[in-house]
Amino acid sequence: MRKFNSILIANRGEIAVRVIKTAQSLGYRTIAVYSEADTSALHVRMADEAVLIGAAPVQQSYLDMAKILAAAKETGAEAIHPGYGFLSENADFARACEDAGIVFIGPSADAIDLMGNKAAAKRRMIAANVPCVPGYEDKDQSDETLIAAAREIGFPIMVKAAAGGGGRGMRLVHEEKTLADAIASARSEAQNAFGSDELILEKAIVEPRHVEVQVFADSFGNVVHLGERDCSVQRRHQKVVEEAPCPVMTPELREKMGEAAVEAARSINYRGAGTVEFLLDAENNFYFLEMNTRLQVEHPVTEMVTGLDLVALQIKVSEGEPLGIEQQEVKLQGHAIEVRLYAEDTAQDFLPCTGQITTWQAAEGDGVRFDVGVDSGQEISPFYDPMIAKVIAYGESREVARHRLIEALKNTVIFGLTTNRGFLIDILNEEVFARGEATTAFIGDLFDGDRLVAKTPNLSEMAMAAVLLYQVERDRAKASAVFVSDKLIDWSSGGELLTRYVFASGDEKVDVTVSPKRNGGYNVMVGETELFLEVKERNGNKAQLTVDGNRKRVHYESMSDGVLELTDVGKTLRFTNEIAFPLSATAAAGNGQVTAPMHGTLLEVFVKAGDTVEVGARLAVLEAMKMQHDILAEVSGVVQNVIATAASQVSVDDLLFEIEAPE
């Protein structure tokens, strides 16, 4: 441990921005690293210095230890903060920093090594008398041994990557006949994601809560916990909503879980920020799940209820200072809830989305915090996690925090790509969540396919879109004209002025006609329904309108004629005037042409030319944005052409397979 004056942040996005803000506020010189895809990223512009470390793929940039250490040497960085993800839990990187004489702002390499392997970590926790889920965590990895162990444990079973996290390499198995396939697929995903195919088995706890305890330790043997976070609202084992404190926590249970977490950290001589994760069942029994040896994505909710800056504490401890906090001094006040705003299409099985954020404006409000690493004009790259921002709200009570968070999501302006904002608002509005009763089964039970279909516009939204698009196009035409009087706006010498639009509403096409009235306002025919609209105010991308006398506040954006995005109470819709943009003759889904849904790497290809396939058959596995996606056949037939090859990079809409359906 030694004092330092400069910190290199070996990360990107919102966590890099988050660390830079605290480090700069404490007077440290900050150095960013960036890939070619992040040349204009916010963290690059915020840091005091920035170093290009390679091409966009993470293996050539953010995961390249040699390049990051070279950047530290070049800039004279005395310490490295790894953020989360990437190299944050890489013991070799922590050792390399130490060997280079650079302070690693995190735990020791030995602690990372031990807790980075679920099997070894669980064995150590059992020895430390920390409650653990019954399971199998030994070294024999043969299928026969795993299947026999599963029989002994009893179904349902969780198959987990020993070196994994974030839901990758994890499978829930309800009966033995599907176990062998689950083991094979979990091994494959674990090997590709973590470089290790070692697995563990655990008894599946039915509908538990996922509750984690934030711990902090210094180099003098002082260990405290900073309360718990409830992270039960998950999709495919990835957290979506986090909050502090846990809605069902009692002082007695907090004391027990806190003591177990502190003992877990103390048993491995831990230093710095760490999180001990538990499963909590309906009878308030809790079981050790894993320990994350880094700062968590959801750390802001702990900061908001404790008043502590966890990054500042990390820096303090890494400089060899004592923690300076006694357990009895930690007080939890109020409630905080965080959601993860992603670029993803919930109606397309949460498919990650790429593209440019044309407009970004975070909402303002009491108790609202945005941890964000993007701004207007920035690209969401296919090479990285598609998280745009973390939105956090604090309140004196859980209900105040919940309402503030809903309003913050509704009033945030984001255009250019599809996000999960509507899904997050639906979660926060759901009665089960409002009552504080959500378990890890919450999303699976309440958000099936019917609730995740694409939102269709209603009559009012189509009318508002048509009027706003009319005004935007009118103003563009006037700006490009010469000597046009304002008196001629919305006037026609040929009688009533009619402007027609055709919008899609689900599978239907709806005619919308806008007719300006001489006394102001517009008559709008939406199909067979007539509405009267007035535009009360239009400023930037905000508008106030009345629809048949009902006042509406919306955000909108039109980057080109014929296209408009409209956000109404958190629901974002894209309108394209199909008169201006008639449907092209491109192949429709289900015609046998299988294309890549996004940029990524093809890990496996399962078919060859001449194979007969049924609808839903797995054709290939595509890895993109840290997840594996199955490429499935949309028609039954014979595979005529296989363009896809394993281990190759593909771009969105690249043709992968051609299937000829029988006549």
From TrEMBL:
Q: What are the Lipoyl-binding domain coordinates in residue numbering?
A: 584-660
Keywords of this entry = ATP-binding, Biotin, Ligase, Nucleotide-binding, Transit peptide
The superkingdom of the source organism is: Bacteria
Q: Which cofactor does it need?
A: biotin
Query: What Pfam family is a match, any one?
Result: CPSase_L_D2
List the PANTHER family hit by this protein, alphabetically.
CARBOXYLASE:PYRUVATE/ACETYL-COA/PROPIONYL-COA CARBOXYLASE (PTHR18866), METHYLCROTONOYL-COA CARBOXYLASE SUBUNIT ALPHA, MITOCHONDRIAL-RELATED (PTHR18866:SF33)
Q: Give the protein's recorded name.
A: Acetyl-CoA carboxylase biotin carboxylase subunit
| Native source species | Sneathiella litorea
- Lineage of this protein's species? Bacteria, Pseudomonadati, Pseudomonadota, Alphaproteobacteria, Sneathiellales
